[in-house]
Design a protein that fits this description.
Length: about 475
């Protein structure tokens, strides 16, 4: 393979994008003649990557004449954008898809469609084909940009459409996105994962790592800012292994230099790619959050090795120390898996001790879930679910008291925070600090979208109470 070819982006060609545009026009004619006021219900499961995909799916559906609804009874198309990361996520989708049988019986002319990571697995698509005949269209993660053609085929042919090609993945630029309102936005900078952690399905359903160009990212950022979005999260399964002709640290600096008052966040960072260069960029860029989501998964070196994570507990702790040295006010969050196959109580205690050393502001914790086709699927897993549940409770107790202490330490401090939305309590707002802490304060909804000064008055485990000051 020539050097050029190896470095070429797997970009969908302009010709192909124009072909899809032509399908979008034809599909719109059919949709608008078939339904009096065409409406789509798009439901998204899983991570922010899926949320970002859904915004582009909605962009294409809008081009094809659909408005949007949250009510099944109003929908002429129901699309579930699914997640495969844990069994529980898949069970939820299957339950919801089963329930759509009644919908399809009532509305045989409507379309039921499924997409996302779960559908990218052949065994799931086969199950849908066999057992869920009310599903009209199934498509995988690599052909989202072909939705106009796929929907056209579904509407015009008398048979079900399945499109789940095997692929390393593509980059499709130029798809319009529908922003759901609000001041937060999601901006994918890279796709896919090359890490193959032994428990994880993501590399199998999202393809290989590929990065968008800085120009495409910057153009999206400016568009988002022009729509009133003030808090932008750069997305990637391994966002800090970004390689679009510059490093992720350089990308942060470029985006930080874009005019306007806004916050830049990013997730998810892999510890193995968390360089000093990145930490320095965070320190230097005033728009970049003072928060690092750095999933550690486990505190036992033996288990980290079995997970194929490429770092040790000591290396991870060193990163945390370096980050704190450069940014004393930084807050950390993480993902933890409890009960990986072969994990003992002693291994688990290493995780607890790591949590005590790092002192995370909050944690996303998961009990290990066996995923079909991953290396961990065949590893002996003698610890019972009940026991893993007990370990989890022990961990959560430790974490809760740490979170309470961190919150209590914030009392009396002053921050700049972005007013995001009305809180569930009358006359109150939710705001978010640069450290990614959620704050509730009395204030008028007229402030939403503005950065305001706050003083923290009290702290609970996951939310700070504050007053807005001038
Ligand atoms: N790319 C990111 C996140 C991927 S999925 C990263 O590497 O950190 C989000 C989280 O789900 C993971 O961090 C992990 O904690 C959890 N997870 C993934 N596969 C899992 C499995 N099979 N069982 C339990 N938790 C899992
Ligand atoms: Fe999954 Fe690991 Fe890739 Fe994250 S880095 S998506 S946990 S394989
Ligand atoms: Fe789920 Fe796919 Fe995200 S598996 S966590 S929706 S990348």
């Amino acid at each position: 393979m020539s050097e050029n070819k190896r470095n070429a982006l797997p970009l969908v060609s302009d010709d192909e994008m124009q072909r899809q545009q032509a399908f979008a026009k034809k599909t719109k004619e059919i949709v608008c003649s078939r339904y009096p006021a065409p409406k789509a219900l798009v439901r998204t499961f899983g991570c922010q990557q899926n949320v970002a995909d859904a915004q582009r799916i909605k962009g294409m559906l809008a081009e094809m004449g659909y408005g949007f609804t949250d009510e099944e009874t109003d929908a002429d198309l129901i699309l579930f954008n699914t997640c495969a990361v844990r069994e529980h996520a898949e069970d939820r989708v299957i339950g919801n898809v089963g329930a759509l049988k009644h919908f399809k019986r009532r509305r045989p002319d409507a379309i039921v469609a499924l997409c996302g990571c779960m559908m990218q697995q052949q065994h799931v698509a086969d199950r849908i084909r066999k057992s869920f005949s009310h599903v009209d269209l199934v498509f995988g993660t690599h052909v989202i940009h072909q939705l106009p053609e796929l929907l056209y085929n579904t509407l015009t042919r008398q048979k079900r459409v399945f499109a789940i090609p095997d692929s390393d993945g593509v980059i499709a630029e130029g798809i319009p996105f529908v922003h759901d309102g609000g001041v937060r936005g999601w901006l994918p900078v890279m796709y896919g994962c090359n890490n193959f952690c032994t428990y994880c399905i993501v590399p199998y359903v999202r393809g290989r790592e590929r990065s968008r160009t800085p120009e495409a990212i910057k153009a999206d950022l400016k568009k988002m800012l022009s729509q009133g979005i003030k808090d932008i999260t750069l997305l990637g399964q391994n966002v800090n292994s970004y390689a679009g002709g510059m490093t992720f640290a350089q990308l942060l600096r470029e985006l930080n230099a874009v005019d306007g008052q806004f916050t830049l966040r990013f997730m998810t960072s892999h510890p193995k790619d968390c360089t000093e260069e990145l930490l320095l960029a965070m320190r230097d860029c005033e728009k970049v959050e003072r928060h690092l989501h750095l999933p550690v998964q486990c505190g036992s070196d033996r288990i980290l090795k079995a997970m194929n994570r490429h770092y040790t507990k000591a290396q991870y702790l060193k990163l945390i120390e370096k980050a704190r040295e450069l940014m004393p006010d930084i807050l950390f969050t993480s993902d933890i898996i409890v009960g990986f196959p072969g994990e003992t109580y002693e291994d688990f205690k290493q995780t607890v001790s790591l949590i005590e050393q790092v002192r995370y502001q909050s944690l996303y914790t998961f009990i290990y879930s066996k995923r079909h086709g991953t290396p961990a699927e065949n590893m002996p897993d003698p610890v019972t679910r009940k026991e893993k549940g007990e370990w989890m409770r022990e961990l959560l107790e430790v974490q809760e008291s740490i979170a309470e202490e961190i919150c209590a330490q914030q009392v009396g401090k002053r921050f700049v925070a972005l007013a995001e939305e009305p809180s569930k309590n009358e006359g109150m707002l939710y705001l978010r600090t640069l450290c990614n802490q959620v704050v509730e304060a009395p204030g008028s909804t007229a402030l939403i979208g503005q950065f305001v000064n706050i003083e923290v008055t009290s702290g609970e485990t996951w939310i700070l109470k504050a007053k807005i000051i001038d």
